[in-house]
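Thread: Newbie trying to understand structure tokens

Hi all, I'm a second-year student working on a class project, and my supervisor (Dr. K.) asked me to get a predicted structure for one chain before our next meeting. I've only ever worked with sequences, so writing a 3D structure as a token string is new to me. If someone could post the tokens and maybe explain what I'm looking at, I'd be very grateful. Here's the chain:
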Amino acid sequence: MAKNKRVEQVAEEIKTILSNAIQFEIQDPRLGFVTLTSVNVSPDLYHANINVSVMGDDTARKDSLATLDRAKGFLRRELGQQMKLRAVPELHFHLDVTIDTRQYMDTLFNQVDEERRVNPPKLDDE
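---
Reply by user tm_fold:
Sure, no problem. This is what the structure looks like when written as tokens:
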């Protein structure tokens, strides 16, 4: 159990450090509005899967992910300077589409609600 707690602590620290580095240090104009949604670290702490949400269209998302991939060396160096780990994990960035899916589902539910308001369902008694 202690191992899992350590992995979770490392993941949270990585998320905090990377969030700050991405927001304040990377000056590339191709990097859009990026939010780190989660960080999952392998049990051996050698790999970190970072899920990111990017505001904008598909082009903005692709550009932002490519920019993050190019900045991996810089970001790993930042982690190495701020964390006390035997080895700095390899960073793997993934697009998190959870927010997009949620917005799409909200739109569908709103359409159903509007349809029910305009055409209320008929009960069997009527």
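A couple of things are worth pointing out once you decode it. The mean pLDDT is 87. The longest strand covers residues 34-41. Feel free to ask follow-ups in this thread.
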